[in-house]
Model the fold of this input.
Amino acid sequence: MSIQDEIRKVKLASPRMAASPEETRNQALQMVCDALLAHQEEIFAANLEDMAQAQRDGVAAPVLKRLKFDEGKLRDVVAGIRDLIGMPDPLFQTQLARELDEGLVLKRVTCPIGVIGVIFEARPDALVQISSLCLKSGNCVILKGGSEALRSNRKLFDIIYDAARQAGLPEHCMMQLEARSEISELLDCHDSVDLLIPRGSNSFVQYIMNNTKIPVMGHADGICHIYVDRDADLDKAVPIIFDSKTQYVSACNAVETLLVHEDVVKELMPRLKAALDQKQVEIRGTKEIAGVIPCEEATPEDNTREYLDYILSVKPVADVYEAIDHINCFGSHHTDCIVTENAQTAETFMDLVDSAGVYQNCSTRFADGYRYGFGAEVGISTGKIHARGPVGLEGLVSYKYKLYGHGQIVEDYASGEKQFHFKDLK
Amino acid sequence: MSIQDEIRKVKLASPRMAASPEETRNQALQMVCDALLAHQEEIFAANLEDMAQAQRDGVAAPVLKRLKFDEGKLRDVVAGIRDLIGMPDPLFQTQLARELDEGLVLKRVTCPIGVIGVIFEARPDALVQISSLCLKSGNCVILKGGSEALRSNRKLFDIIYDAARQAGLPEHCMMQLEARSEISELLDCHDSVDLLIPRGSNSFVQYIMNNTKIPVMGHADGICHIYVDRDADLDKAVPIIFDSKTQYVSACNAVETLLVHEDVVKELMPRLKAALDQKQVEIRGTKEIAGVIPCEEATPEDNTREYLDYILSVKPVADVYEAIDHINCFGSHHTDCIVTENAQTAETFMDLVDSAGVYQNCSTRFADGYRYGFGAEVGISTGKIHARGPVGLEGLVSYKYKLYGHGQIVEDYASGEKQFHFKDLK
Done:
């Protein structure tokens, strides 16, 4: 049986998954928790094999850290699932109830998106989080994790899928792909897959976006900016920039470009350099910046570079409007911050910057589903169609219109014999 | 200046358009109404020229009917705009307000999608409706109407765009394309255009979907079904089927395939045929249907044909589940109806059929923004990402996250020094 035939079976399971009652889905999540705890030794053993193989393959330390699945990570994912169980059902919510005419009632009711394909990095805990979000939201899911986590993922998938079926969720509600070659088969399944969520490098996400007709949710770039305004409190600006740049340099929400109001360049830059020097951050500045502190020279390419490294480009701007134009032109519409004590300037910035997250006086690193209180996220979206920003449960649902009649036909309204009266029901 | 440069200007205008206050946008709509009425004679004159040209070109009667823009159509569009003015602002609505920690407040606020490209049929009233919806929702719009309406559209566009600027909306907030060749330039502008809404034939919409990286909202096929259940009231079934098929055969929400529970085939079909014969509807039935009434023989291709004509394919099914499977397999996820008096069977059908509209006991022709009470629509979406079904104002907005802090950094939370407390604000 081909991958495409297998994926077709997932599609066919999706209507029953969509109609599954809340209790069944919560029961499945509870059984997933129990099974993860019951089988933890097997999971850890599989993960140790993955870790050993990765070390033999010379995988980098940060990747090894993500790959590791130990007691601490297990505790975190189990706590996350328990949070999810306690969350209100995202399905069967009536968003609109309207009497169009006597005995003709329209309802808009939430439903799952259907079949979601998620391609993610070698992080076993991500497999658990993504699966749990999909189970809670009644979506079928096709999972392709990073190959370094093969053994861990296989074990975790089996445990979760078994628990889901034992709870009464339909067969084929989950599927795992293991070979990288299977990704291209997945990309061809636009008749069966409703949404793809690719996570990973810019070039990988671009590749996915350019090679499928399936809608893609996510982000390629994370070129985040901080603008330090004339009315900034520099005692806040320095730690915010330091945290945004160095707290986790390879994250999509790390700052890459700093824009500084020309009036505060002289005061800010020496203090900032002193702080960033602690982490050996390379500053790439324009001529104006180089006149204030020693730094590398920035080129035009630095406007559009996502360094994912201890590098920060810095440019002076004449006012908030120049900052806004720079961000809208060169940014990736992910997360951008203004540091200012002036509420009006902040609001101008936040209204005019066209990004999923617009911040005042805090680190760009807050852009994250957990930190927003969503429990978990499947990814961060920079698109403006459907979910934007960190995507939790809400971004995994759609809706359908249900219209209940008693034999009504359109001709009676077209001819003027009957009139609509549009009465919203409470 | 190239089309792409012009479109870039629209993109650059979009942040100011997004930040425009409600009063300015409503004022623009009021000025559009006034200007349309003040310039009606010029509009009618331009339309008469279009009509004369179309008649010389031998354009079909239904197309001429859509092309016509007279006092009646003007009255309708002006009434539509006045309704729109009275509607609540879709922008600046706070969907979520949450204190993450003391002095760190997250808000999710609605905002426009940005720049929307709409490619639509030769219907001058559609240009007015689409423009009005975009003005109200703070979206910049790029309009490409059917070429038969060239003169009417040019006149209407100038009137609307002038009124918008006079009211204070930004220059380049609207743009019109006139040549068909410009569509391919539009399709390349994925950096400037946030959403495309193509309306028209299946093949045209498919062409757009296959030739752009811009997200596309709409529908290609409209293969709608009616399933007549064993527990149907046939006195309702016959007029519902008649209306769904014949009230406007070329509409996307007209029924194309009828599924009939095998227990009611014998009773329903002769009565249905007598009704459909009044409009010379050709019935294409399976062998079982041909054993009950004289009809053409259906082939497997009839399962997936959108006739847009006086043709109906008919197939018996063993139960509601066979009907559901047929619809999910062969339908286009547009609008599908069950005729039954059994509320439980209806709910099974409506939960398991994966379509934008699922109906009980009424005509599929109700799938329309006006009939749903949305005032107007930019189109009907069969996608499940973003808006689904008839798309009015609500489908033209996205949201952004605004995070207000006082110097908070992530490291304090990562290290455990501080904890989030996630308190929803009223």
About this structure: Chain A touches chain B through 79 residues (CB under 8 Å). The longest helix of chain A spans residues 22-38. DSSP finds 15 helices and 17 strands in chain A. Chain A has a mean pLDDT of 95.
